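Hi R.,

As promised on Friday, here is the backbone we talked about, encoded as structure tokens. Could you run it through your design pipeline when you get a chance and send me back a sequence?
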């Protein structure tokens, strides 16, 4: 039997999100039924609900930053039990047999991973996300949330946390390394916290100094305004890693000039427009321009364990479900420090 649950959904592109009901599938052999307690709001929720990233599936229940409690498990589930604290991120399944899946990189599944919402499950039905009371997910795509993190500040880690942790680990952020984070927003503030906890020397590069006090409090050692041309002169050749968390088009040549020889500029923000790049910006200094997409399930669990060990959680503003549409407008206006989280008890 399917389960009817209350959710907030957009009926069509650009429509406001409204309270409705959806059906969750029957708990199968290897499924976990999660009582959702908190759901983060990611900027990508807004892009998809407004059909800005291509044709979308409506009605749409956004939300891929899910934290809750296990309510029921299928008879074949071995990793979780009723009462466990768990999370679900950006994907809820994959083919499981291709090389990326077998190597723990399910986000790069060659058949395409199944997104937590605005996707189609293996049963042929649309997937619905975390702006809802409950969700059913196969156990292989559920992660445990350690006791060291409260569920509300843990929810955004399922996207913002892993999106910044994965590239920082991959490119070797740690003691003796200098890391710059472009943008101090929903992603950037976690990038600062994680890079600092990894032991790197951290610099924030932001348009202005408006959030400087926040940046230093969150773990940055230095804070510079990119609107000041002297910043690019003073910091030339300074960084081992630059993590760009912004979705605005950048002067990539100017930022590549801030890297040391062999340094990497890694993008987790995704501008809609194509970029222009003079390849001599890369050739000179053997520099790297890279991208990164979330992380696999094992790495997501590693990130949560790391955050619990270092007492890291997102900086959040907790809201009621009735405030979702207002929160979307505030995100677009950069009026949040630094992640909205929905208290799903208000759905």
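Update: got your reply. Pasting your designed sequence below so it's all in one thread:
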């Amino acid at each position: 039997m399917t389960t009817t649950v209350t959710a907030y959904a957009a009926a069509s592109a650009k429509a406001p999100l409204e309270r409705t009901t959806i059906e969750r599938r029957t708990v199968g052999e290897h499924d976990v039924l999660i009582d959702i307690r908190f759901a983060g709001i990611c900027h990508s929720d807004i892009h998809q609900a407004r059909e800005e990233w291509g044709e979308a599936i409506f009605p749409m229940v956004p939300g891929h930053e899910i934290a809750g409690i296990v309510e029921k498990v299928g008879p074949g589930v071995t990793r979780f039990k009723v009462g466990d604290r768990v999370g679900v991120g950006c994907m809820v399944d994959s083919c499981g047999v291709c090389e990326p899946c077998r190597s723990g990189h399910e986000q790069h599944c060659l058949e395409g991973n199944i997104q937590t919402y605005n996707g189609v499950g293996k049963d042929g039905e649309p997937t619905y996300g975390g702006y809802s009371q409950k969700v059913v997910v196969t156990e292989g795509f559920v992660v445990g949330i350690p006791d060291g993190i409260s569920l509300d500040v843990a929810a955004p880690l399922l996207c913002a946390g892993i999106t910044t942790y994965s590239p920082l680990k991959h490119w070797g952020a740690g003691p003796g390394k200098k890391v710059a984070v472009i943008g101090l927003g929903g992603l950037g503030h976690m990038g600062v916290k994680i890079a600092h906890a990894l032991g790197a020397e951290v610099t924030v590069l932001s348009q202005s100094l408006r959030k400087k006090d926040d940046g230093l409090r969150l773990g940055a050692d230095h804070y510079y305004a990119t609107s000041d041309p002297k910043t690019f002169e003073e910091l030339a050749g300074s960084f081992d890693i630059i993590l760009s968390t912004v979705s605005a088009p950048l002067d990539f040549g100017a930022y590549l000039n801030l890297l040391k020889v062999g340094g990497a500029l890694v993008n987790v923000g995704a501008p809609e427009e194509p970029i222009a790049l003079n390849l001599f910006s890369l050739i000179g200094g053997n520099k790297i321009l890279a991208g990164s997409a979330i992380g696999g399930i094992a790495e997501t669990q590693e990130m949560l364990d790391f955050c619990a060990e270092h007492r890291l959680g997102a900086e959040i503003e907790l809201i009621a479900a009735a405030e979702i549409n207002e929160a979307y407008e505030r995100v677009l206006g950069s009026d949040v420090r630094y992640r909205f989280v929905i208290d799903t008890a208000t759905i």
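One thing I noticed while checking it: The radius of gyration is 20 Å.

Thanks again,
M.
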